[in-house]
Design goal:
Layout (H helix, E strand, L loop, with lengths): L8 E6 L3 E7 L9 E7 L7 E11 L2 E9 L7 E8 L8 E7 L5 E8 L6 E9 L2 E11 L2 E10 L13 E9 L2 E8 L8 E7 L10 E3 L8
Length: 220
Amino acid sequence: GSREPAGRFTWLRTTGSTVQIRTAADLESIGNGTVATVFQAPHGPILSDVWAPELRFLDGKWYVYACGNIAPAGGDHRMFVLEATTDDPAGPYAFKGLLAPGSRAIDPTVFVRAADQAKFLAYSGYDADGQCLYLARLADPWTVAGTPVRISLPSLPWERVGAPINGGPAVLERGGSTFLGYSASASWTPDYCLGMLVNTGGDYLDPASWVKQAQPVFRR
């Protein structure tokens, strides 16, 4: 859950080479709020193309999850973690390390299972079937425990327009079920859409426990 100080809104964005956090007293002025740059590429293994930052409060600290390119020629993304050095979600942050450093991947999101407070990482990984959705257990906010499992591949026609892509996972628990929304098809086409997986059993690391909805939640 959020521990954002009362009366303040927080917004993350990337400029491509930075992660910035904006804060403001009200939502209407967030675009003009105070800006803190909490990450600047190149930094460590991350050289450029910083994408998809997310803010999470885990184990008493603030963390930023994002991804960035590690290859001088581009096209080789890895996920990484920043850890706040104070109790302020606007930073400053320290570079904590890479997540699953052996695999090309983007769009990390971290969520906590309500039943036992176990932490999980969801992301979009690249394999022979295109961009696919993976889940992994986290031993702590920056360490993947065990082998990630693939829970979705772009197998349906509406997931393959322009390119076979499942990306941008986002998780919501409600009424005893867990819903994982994701983007499908290529973002540069008008058929970019939103799909959904549903888990009613709670075994997140069993791919068979995730049921894909046959049609997009939103399209066109």
